[in-house]
């Protein structure tokens, strides 16, 4: 590493310490949005927005879904089969807990 690059890095670290201690205000900020954690097996609800077979998935219909780490969503399609579909076929939606409880009871 070049001496001038190292000195710049060292100065940035010193400035960061001052900011963390509250001695100095940050010159700029950035926000990182973290997508909701969709742990494997976590059940949620999605709306279908596209399909490759309209007889199996109905656009604008709400489905109960489980996400996988592979970028696929498991839903029970119109044939009654639990099938994996691409995540971009759906938009995740959130309901209040009371609504989710009623939806879970209706589905049984």
Describe the structure.
The chain has 108 residues and is α+β, with helices and mostly antiparallel strands. The chain folds into two domains: 30 residues; 65 residues, Roll (SH3 type barrels). Helix content is 27%, strand content 24%. The chain contains two helices and five strands; from the N terminus they run αβββββα. A five-stranded antiparallel beta sheet has the order 4-3-2-1-5, with no helix packed on it. A hairpin with a 5-residue loop joins strand 3 and strand 4. It is elongated and about 65 Å long. The N and C termini lie far apart (63 Å). The mean pLDDT is 84.
Please give a quick description of this structure.
It is built from 2 helices and 5 strands. The chain is an alpha+beta fold and 108 residues long. Strand 2 and strand 3 (72-76) form a beta hairpin.
Q: According to CATH, what is the class of the largest domain?
A: Mainly Beta
Q: In CATH terms, what is the architecture of the largest domain?
A: Roll
By DSSP, the count of extended strands is 5
Fraction in helix: 25-40%
> Strands across the major sheet, in which order?
4-3-2-1-5
**Uncertain spans:** none
Q: What structural class do you assign from the helix and strand content?
A: alpha+beta
- N/C terminus separation: 63 Å
Number of helices: 2
CATH topology of the largest domain: SH3 type barrels
Largest sheet: 5 strands, antiparallel
Number of domains: 2
Tell me the Rg in angstroms. Answer: 23 Å
Shape: elongated
In percent, how much strand structure appears in the residues?
15-25%
Mean pLDDT: 84
Order of helices and strands: HEEEEEH
